[in-house]
Specification:
two-stranded antiparallel sheet
């Protein structure tokens, strides 16, 4: 399974983005841009984990 969320480097820091849409991820109404590498990586991991858990819950 391909990860839904990934990170990319931009001029103002790191962005977490949705690989299915190419758009920046949004959490609680906040677009996830300008992050440190560690924060972006941790957030992408968390969003991917939540996405897997949500998919598993829907399929059962």
């Amino acid at each position: 399974m391909t990860a839904r969320y990934d990170i990319k480097s931009e001029d103002n820091g790191w962005t977490v983005y949705d690989t299915t849409t190419g758009l920046s991820a949004e959490v609680n109404g906040c677009i996830q841009v300008g992050l440190s590498l560690d924060d972006a990586d941790d957030l992408a991991d968390l969003l991917n984990r939540l996405n897997i858990e949500q998919s598993a819950a829907v399929s059962h």
